[in-house]
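Re: the 122-residue chain
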Amino acid sequence: MLEIASDNSGSGVLQKDIASKQDLSVKYLDHIIAALKAAGLIQNLKGKKSGYVLSRPAAQISMFDIHNAFENGICVIECIDLNSLCKKTGKCKSQTFWKGLNEIVLEHFKNTSLLDIMNSEA
C-alpha cells in the first residue's frame, strides 16, 4: 500500500516493481494484491496489466481498512473473540483488561490513516 500510495507517476505502480522494491515474490504479491482489490482499496489504472493506484486518497484509508483486507476484525487475545467461547466468561477478572486493551488497539488502527504512516518518520 505504501508503494502504491507513494507513487506520483500518474501511471500507477506495476506489480513487478512493487515486488522488487519490497523484496517479495510476484506470486506471493498476487495474493496481497487480490485481497486489496477485493477490499476496494486499490484498482488497476487502465485495466489488466496496468499499474495499481489507490481507490481513494491515502488520508481516507485507515490501517483498519488495510488489516481487514486480510483478517476480519482485531482481537488481541482469543478469549475475548466473539467467535470463541471462553469457559471463564463472566468469572474472569482479567477479561475487562483485555477488552479495554483491544479497544485501544482497535481505535489506533481506525484512527491511523495510510497518509499518517506515509508521513511518519522512519
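The chain is about 45% helix and 5% strand.
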